[in-house]
Amino acid sequence: MNRFVTILLFTVLLFTMYLVVNSKIAGGHASIFGYQIKTVLSVQWSRTFKRVRLYLLKQEEI
Questions:
Q1: Second label for 1, Cα 20 to 30 Å away, from 20, 25, 28, 45?
Q2: What is the pLDDT of residue 6?
Q3: How far is residue 58's CA from residue 1's CA, in Å, rounded to a whole number?
Q4: Pairing of strands 31-32, 35-39
Q5: What's the rounded Cα separation, in Å, for the pair 50 and 15?
Q6: Angle value at C-alpha 31, between 27 and 35, nearest 5 degrees
Q7: Phi, psi torsion values for 5, nearest 5 degrees
Q8: Full-prediction pTM beyond 0.70?
Q9: What are the pLDDT digits (tens) for 6-43?
Q10: Distance between CA 36 and CA 55 in Å, rounded?
């Protein structure tokens, strides 16, 4: 069971890395199932979001 979980997590990690690298090569933003991966590095947004954390954002059309 422990080996299965390790293999599953490693597969998810490789898949995520592939998506990020592929989107960066194409010149776009990294996205998974319609959600964009963002990090907050600016002090201006630190009141709303904690800094240096990953957030998934879904863009909705108005």
A1: 20
A2: 94
A3: 34
A4: antiparallel
A5: 26
A6: 140
A7: -65, -40
A8: no
A9: 999 999 889 888 877 777 787 777 677 777 777 766 66
A10: 8
Question: What is the rounded CA–CA span in Å between residue 62 and residue 48?
Answer: 23
In b/e form, how buried is each residue of 1-40, taking b as 16+ CB within 10 angstroms? eeeeeeeeeeeeeeeeeeeeeebeeeeeeebeeeeebeeb
Total count of residues recorded for the chain: 62
The string of DSSP codes covering 13-37 is HHHHHHHHHHHHHHTS--EETTEEE
Can you read off the two tokens belonging to residue 43? 């002090």
Whether the CB-CB separation of 30 and 37 falls below 8 Å is answered with yes
pLDDT in the model for residue 8? 94
Residues 3 and 18 sit within 8 Å (Cβ to Cβ) = no
